[in-house]
Amino acid sequence: MSDQMIVTRFAPSPTGYLHIGGGRTALFNWLFARGRGGKFLLRIEDTDRARSTPEATEAILKGLAWLGLDHDGEVISQFDRAPRHAEVAHQLLDMGKAYKCFATQDEIEAFREKAREEKRSTLFQSPWRDADPATHPDAPYVIRLKTPLEGETIIRDRVQGDVRIGNDQLDDMVLLRSDGTPVYMLAVVVDDHDMGVTHVIRGDDHLNNAARQMGIYTAMGWDVPVWAHIPLIHGPDGKKLSKRHGALGVEEYQAMGYPAAGMRNYLARLGWSHGDDEFFTDAQAQAWFDLDGIGKAPARLDFKKLENLCGQHIAAADDAALLHEIVAYLDAAGLPALAQAQADGLHRAMYCLKERARTFPELLEKAHFVLAATPIVPDDAAAKALDTVSRGILASLTPQLQNASWTRHDLEAILNRFAEEQGTKFGKLAGPLRAALAGRTATPSVFDMMLVLGRDETLARLAHAAADGQD
């Protein structure tokens, strides 16, 4: 395995959105492959024709794109490969590793009923397993795998350890239904083998499937992949994640304004750890991620941790990249797009907005001063700071700023000197200035707002605030 290229895959069923648990499974596969110069493949398991929809496939692809998880090669459709799956079932039949079973549903149910009465295993034992083909009737049949009757199947799992299952606990699995269509269990094994998958990293709800799937690998003489069955994600209360815990779909997190880098970082830490490291980049995650760091216990979703990490990623992000992601967020959330002037202003202001914002809505709230148009309409709290005295002070201040060189150093000097002349501290001026410039009480620093807005816009807002309310 050491000389072989690492190949992982993500194989969702297109029956709905990309679940956050699926997003994490995809991330683990992506990190493992990317960190080792391997391939990360995508297969859509669309064999359930009644529930699979093109819209769901599109939602999964969009969710992966937002998370930044790029895959290699074409997206593979499992349904399109049904003839190949059937071919393998017939190969097994020809090799004597599978057999035709003519038992009807009624016969199988009668067998189980009798087994229940006699308090023995209800696993169906087909009378056709060793039947002479000459005795085969001209009737519908399924193809079943011949599971060894004795011994045990050992799943050597990199997360769960060795899991042993007695072969007497496994039935002769159906490979091909009586209408000739392959079952999911067969399709998965054939696809993984044909795609060259070396490591199967998936939810531990598939652990029991591994034992049955190993029967096909062994019968075909194929290499069994490295198994890594990861625990599921639970809600903050320790129960299986459900709608009552909040957002389940990856796209909902985009629409709530979480940055993709923060989401990747958080999901990577959800059930996997690298020492005490909490905040890390994609490059670090790819270099560090390994199967040994995955815990056995279910991970708990923690929105406070998610927000904390997202805040750190917003602060560390490149301004232009952040603006690009905010534009995509507004579209995903169904909010109005930014005009060009607003986008330009937001970009200029990014340095004083991104330090303490944990989500894009928080950042945009801080950016109100540069996104709002003049005249500024103060909210109720800010309006209280603009009483008659404050307006008079703003009117006196405006001329002193006319000829300022508009650097932070000069603006600080002018405002501090002006406060002294008014017999007060600058802190007392800050409230009316925030109200005049932003119409809010919680804003970036007054000096940052003045620098971002520029001389003309600052003076226009101060003049309007000073004049407003006067006869």
List the topology elements:
Layout: E1 7-10, H1 20-34, E2 39-44, H2 54-67, E3 76-77, H3 82-94, E4 98-101, H4 105-117, E5 142-145, E6 152-157, E7 161-166, E8 174-176, H5 184-194, E9 199-203, H6 207-220, E10 226-230, E11 233-234, H7 250-255, H8 260-269, H9 282-288, E12 299-300, H10 303-316, H11 319-332, H12 340-353, H13 360-366, H14 368-371, H15 380-384, H16 388-401, H17 408-421, H18 426-438, H19 446-467
Parallel strand pairs: 1-2, 2-3, 9-10, 11-12
Antiparallel strand pairs: 4-5, 5-8, 6-7
Index terms:
471 residues, mainly alpha, Rossmann fold, tRNA binding, EC 6.1.1.17, ATP binding, cytoplasm
What does this 3D model show about the protein?
The structure is a single chain. It is built from 19 helices and 12 strands. α18 (426-438) crosses α19 (446-467). It has 4 domains: 7-77 and 233-303, 3-Layer(aba) Sandwich (Rossmann fold), CATH 3.40.50; 80-230, HUPs (Rossmann fold, 3-Layer(aba) Sandwich); 317-371; 380-467, Arc Repressor Mutant, subunit A (Orthogonal Bundle), CATH 1.10.10.350. The chain is elongated, with a radius of gyration of 32 Å. α1 links the parallel β1 and β2. It has helices at residues 20-34, 54-67, 82-94, 105-117, 184-194, 207-220, 250-255, 260-269, 282-288, 303-316, 319-332, 340-353, 360-366, 368-371, 380-384, 388-401, 408-421, 426-438, 446-467; strands spanning 7-10, 39-44, 76-77, 98-101, 142-145, 152-157, 161-166, 174-176, 199-203, 226-230, 233-234, 299-300. By secondary structure, the protein is mainly alpha-helical. It has a 3-stranded parallel β-sheet with strand order 1-2-3. The chain has a 3-stranded antiparallel β-sheet with strand order 4-5-8.
